[in-house]
Design brief:
- Helices cover 2% and strands 47% of the residues.
- By secondary structure, the chain is an all-beta fold.
- It has two domains: 161 residues, Immunoglobulin-like (Sandwich); 256 residues, Immunoglobulin-like.
- Strands 1, 2, 3, 4, 5, 6, 7, 9 and 10 form a nine-stranded mixed sheet that branches.
- It is elongated and about 90 Å long.
Length: 428
């Protein structure tokens, strides 16, 4: 999503307030506003739909007393994106001092229409002044991608150029399905990310890469669903799409012809605004069913994540004890409970392998994991019979021992000699 707008040095001509001799303000200072896009988190452009154009623009410059000292809109600038040129406009004159600058591009609706020149900023809608959630801005490339910025200037005679960096209020996602099944006669019919899309977002982000979701109960979620229509192909194409920034644990379900139940996995992720998020999902004849538990004293709910891709990642917090992880083999979504033998290498300190677990499982166990972050790469191989012939299938498995984070401490277990057991459930 990078490069939606050339870096445009522009000066803005605005309606401006004259100096008030009773306030002690000095002579107005001519300033040039440099308007630039923040680069996206991946060097990929949102092209082909005109969604990166600035169609409407409002910049409000608020002084230290809370008055809107100047207002700039799209009519003050000349955008020439066709030839990747800059823009020209008149100069803005501002009184010296501290200014808070609010900028909105392609943002429409009641929350923005009541903003007025030389008015008390405190009277504007709470959605704007308090960074409250907005659900009235359509994420529609045809209307232009909504963008916002909030920054502070110290205006003085010694400086002439001041920067406004517009930040897209949405993320862009691209999903790729890679079908590695031996027979692809049974086609993929649908893909669902459950409760994945929040219906609103905050106007401004707190910091780069940080997602701050609107508070409940104002926030509602919806599924994102793709359905393959018409002729079903072995390699379906899913168009990239825009969404509000999001974070959490989401169930990913893939429905396939003649398979009684969808294939599912849990995606734990954070997708900040102005990020491009590629997600690759692999379909194979064989997959792992991973279940287990661990104990962690004085900690409540702890996230255990599984990356969707050509391999598996089990994430455990440092200091876990009594870890028991059971791994089984699934053939076309059905768990095999017999006639499977396992190997696992290399050995990992503090972990034991039982290659002959109950119901043809591989069991990884540990009495205690040291409080040291680590990442262990192992290969898990299953050997089984198929049509009377011996087959082997290997999987990449990562055991990620991560440091405790602030979010892990949100719920303490009660003071008791019996420590809480936390579940691990990963399925693809």
């Amino acid at each position: 999503m990078a490069g939606f707008l050339p870096s445009i040095g522009l000066s803005g001509c605005t309606n401006e307030s004259p100096a008030d001799p009773d306030t002690g303000e000095g002579k107005p200072v001519p300033v040039i506003i440099s308007l630039t896009p923040e680069e996206a988190a991946a060097p990929i452009a949102a092209t082909g739909n005109g969604g990166d154009e600035i169609k409407t623009l409002n910049i409000y410059i608020v002084n230290a007393t809370g008055k809107v000292e100047a207002h700039v809109d799209e009519t003050d600038f000349t955008f020439n994106t066709a030839h990747n040129e800059g823009t020209t406009a008149s100069t803005v004159k501002l009184q010296p001092g501290t200014k808070t600058v609010y900028a909105f591009a392609n943002c429409e609706g009641d929350a923005f229409s009541t903003l007025s020149l030389s008015d008390d900023w405190a009277t504007v809608p709470e959605a704007v002044s308090g960074n409250q959630p907005i659900d009235i801005i359509p994420i529609n490339a045809g209307n232009g991608i909504p963008m916002s910025a909030r920054t502070t200037w110290e205006v003085s005679e010694s400086r002439t150029t001041y920067k406004v960096e517009l930040i897209r209020m949405v993320a862009k996602m691209e999903i790729t399905l890679k079908d590695q099944r031996e027979s692809q006669s049974n086609k993929v019919t649908s893909l669902t990310l459950a409760q994945f899309q929040p219906d609103r977002t905050k106007l401004f982000r707190p910091n780069y890469g940080i997602v701050e979701l609107p508070e409940s109960p104002t926030l509602s979620w919806s599924d994102w669903k793709w359905v393959q229509e018409n002729e079903r192909t072995a390699s379906p194409s899913i168009a990239p799409f825009y969404l509000h920034e999001t974070k959490g644990s989401f169930t990913v379900s893939i429905a396939i012809d003649r398979e009684a139940s969808p294939r599912t996995a849990i995606l734990n992720t954070t997708i900040p605004r102005n990020h491009f998020y590629p997600l690759t999902i692999y379909l194979t004849d064989y997959s792992l069913d991973i279940q287990g538990s661990y104990r962690l004293a004085a900690i409540g709910t702890v996230t255990v994540s599984k990356n969707i891709g050509n391999g598996y990642t089990i994430e455990l917090p440092e200091g876990s004890s009594d870890v028991q992880i059971s791994i089984g083999l699934k053939e076309n979504g059905t768990l095999k409970s017999s006639d499977v033998t396992w190997t696992c290498s290399p050995a990992i300190d503090h972990f034991n392998y039982n290659t002959s677990g109950q119901n043809a499982t591989l069991v990884l166990s540990s009495e205690a994991i040291p409080a040291i972050p680590a990442e262990h790469e192992i290969i898990v191989t299953a050997t089984f019979l198929k049509n009377g012939k011996k087959e082997t299938y290997s999987f990449d498995l990562t055991l990620l021992i991560r440091p405790l984070a602030d979010d892990d401490l949100t719920k303490a277990s009660p003071a008791s000699p019996l420590r809480e057991t936390q579940p691990i459930s990963i399925e693809l």
